[in-house]
Amino acid sequence: MNEVLLRSLTPSVLGILVRRGADFAAAEDAVQDALVEAVRVWPADPPRDPKGWLVTVAWRRFLDATRADAARRRREDLVDEEPAPGPAAAVDDTLQLYFLCAHPSLTPSSAVALTLRAVGGLTTRQIAQAYLVPEATMAQRISRAKRTVSGNGVSPARAKPRARGRFDQPGNVATVLRVLYLVFNEGYSGDVDLAAEAIRLTRQLAAAIDHPEVAGLLALMLLHHARRAARTAPDGSLVPLAEQDRGRWDTESIAEGVGILQAALARDRLGEFQAQAAIAALHADAPTAEETDWVQIVEWYDELARLTDSPVVRLNRAVAVGEADGPRAGLAELAALDDSLPRHAAVAAYLHERDGDLATAARLYAEAAHKAPDLAERDHLTRQAARLNARRCR
Amino acid sequence: MAKYLLLKHYRGAPASVNDVPMDQWTPEEISAHMQYMNDFAARLEKTGEFVDGQALAPEGTFVRYDGEGRPPVTDGPFAETKDLIAGWMVIDVDSYERAIELAGDLSAAPGAGGKPIHEWLEVRPFLACPPTITE
């Protein structure tokens, strides 16, 4: 049995339960139980209709749990209710679920965890392992998040029938995309490949909603994911873009990303993810690092700066200018930026090295290593400093 | 079994024997050092003695409560702080002697010239729960 296939049914099954009147938190628990049951039972006894099976089992679990709770919570009226399945609005349900899990009142880490569980169908243990926190901590984070979005303790049976099963105050597309972007950027650390999971969830979202920025984010992820194998050396150290073995890039993933991006750009509603994907596509398009179209990349950074006004974008733009117009031009751009920006020293080091000032470059690489946000980057920058120091001494 | 914290210092420990900063090593020497550290942790995972290990950024901030309704006061980072933790490893071993042996192995990680750094590591026992049987 394919676990990813099973998990892809999660959001629509959950959506059906909620539409039938289950409150979100209870429905989500019931769906998790059904998934666990499916993993146990399906290998020996595969159902003809997997989704129908999951809905039936999850609904039964929900009723059992509600019955157990009934005396205290007075939900008997809901227990006896067996609503007609109604028209299948699976796509709409899925979309609503994404919005709910990116609810504006959730913190980013809660939204990420809830999305992975309720939309992605991952278990709490898998999510905990992926984020390197104890399972009990992740369980608390998820249950608090569910309570936050479940609507402030109002029992669904007491709510008006029309209002029941509807998600209140969902987030918007932009917040959903931010959550998926965060998941993708986490890469993979435990037994779950978060980058692949983020791509799967974004693909599912792109199928549910026609939105150029959703397409842009999907293209961006595919283009970055395509370079993954080439990004680390066998000893685990980082390999910068210019030194990567481009033969190891995944051309299929690149072709798909470029196709999705072109269709999105043709709609003429540019957004930051499309612009970032365009930059990634230009890198992917160059047969060698020397053949990179830096002039066009600078133009895309101009678009990106216009869209986001982010100093990080202007820092990256300085690198591109350094490649397009020479390191002195890049350093001039850099001079206009606050040197407390993350990676400012690393960019300065790189541009000084290209300009031939190895002593300054080595000093700045060491300074950048001192400020590096993660181990891989720190090691990489320390190696750069060491490389230049070794060259200068000989 | 008893847990011990192995502490590595940026500053505050006595100077190591092979005391050359890492950015003065060759890239190959850095790789060899990383490999040694990874192998060490992997070996302890295999023997069932590894609990946790983390590296810390060199710069931190001091924070203290500043009274009802006021935001906390922050200070630092202090360039002159005497003691600065670089990272830690938590091990769960059968004896104090084993903890010392492992810390010694870790301190032998290669540095400049491929020679052991002989870095001073601090070994701190965890304060454990009281044993069930006390007499």
TrEMBL record, chain B:
Q: Name one Pfam family in it.
A: YCII
Q: What is this protein called?
A: YCII-related domain-containing protein
Q: Which family does it belong to?
A: Belongs to the YciI family.
Question: Entry's InterPro entries?
Answer: Dimeric_a/b-barrel (IPR011008), YCII (IPR005545)
Q: Which PANTHER family match?
A: BLL7171 PROTEIN, BLL7171 PROTEIN-RELATED
- Please state every residue range assigned to the domain named YCII-related: 17-107
Organism domain of life: Bacteria
User: Source species, please?
Assistant: Streptomyces atratus
